[in-house]
Structures are given as structure tokens and as C-alpha cells.
Amino acid sequence: MHVAYREDREKKNREKNGENCPKLYSNTGKKHGGLWWTYLLSLFFKLIIEILFLYLLHKMWDSFDLPRLVKCTNVDPCPNTVDCYIARPTEKRVFTYFMVGASSVCIILTVCEIFYLIFKRVFQRAKKWKRSTKRSVSYSKASTCHCHVKSEEKDKSQPRCV
């Protein structure tokens, strides 16, 4: 949705300012800026939903195990305890285990993706910061270049550094 929003904004900008106007985004689908944050927040939201689903399923059925027989008490119109049999409990148990396994794999992959995105961003920022500090430090040629020392003494000409 965020990419669609960017593309729509880009389209409106072209309609308003003409086809030759400068673009608002270099690449509307690239994950940087607001799109990166939107994607990261959607991953956290997905993670919370998956964990909540597993927690509620665990609370509803003790340890994801469906019983064959449930004793129903105080169920209208019956005044006594009634035995309620669950149809096909083994199939439902297998399906529940499959869902729990798939949900667990999704949780693991989502956590890995969150860490990947965060560490990738940290390393990019560190690399960018390292490059900017290298550029900001400047040295004079006289202090770093020693290849012309002998030639300067002989003919006092310009340095011949390569």
C-alpha cells in the first residue's frame, strides 16, 4: 500500500508539474525512508498477531491437544452433565499441530527478517558514516607525499606524485 501511495503521489506530481518535472522518489519500490519503517512496523504487527494466535490456541486447548470427550455442564436445555464427543479428533489434532508448526516457522522467519533489516540498516549507516569521516579529514600534499623530495632539491620544480 505504501508503494501504491508513492506511485500515486508521483503520478499526481507529473500531472500537476508536467512530464519533465523532477521525480519525488528515485525508486518508488525501494525500501528506504518511510517505506522501510512501514515494512518494519508491518513485520512487528504480523509477529504480534502470530504470537497472540498461538497463545490463544494454547489456552483454548491445553497444549494444543484436542480431547475426544468434553463434559458439558449447565448447558441449556439439559440440567445434567452431558458427554460431548468431538468428531474426528485425530484429524483435528494433526491439523492443529500443522498450524502450530507453520505458525512457529512464520514467527522464526519474521524475527530473522526483522533482525536482517535492522542489521543491514545499521551496517549501511556505519559504512556511510565511515566514508564521510574519511572524506572530511584532509592532509596537505607536503606532509604525505615524499616521492618528490629528491627532485625538488635538484631542480626545485613541481612535485611529481602519482
How would you summarize this macromolecular structure in one to three sentences?
The chain is mainly alpha-helical and 162 residues long. The chain has helices spanning 2-17, 34-60, 89-136, 141-144, 149-155, and strands spanning 69-72, 82-85.
Q: Would you give an account of this structure?
A:
Helix 2 runs antiparallel to helix 3 (89-136). The chain has a domain at 34-128. A two-stranded antiparallel sheet has the order 1-2. The chain contains five helices and two strands. It has 162 residues and is mainly α. The radius of gyration is 33 Å and the shape is elongated. Keywords: Cell junction, Cell membrane, Gap junction, Membrane, Transmembrane, Transmembrane helix. One gap junction consists of a cluster of closely packed pairs of transmembrane channels, the connexons, through which materials of low MW diffuse from one cell to a neighboring cell. It is found in: Cell junction, Gap junction; Cell membrane.
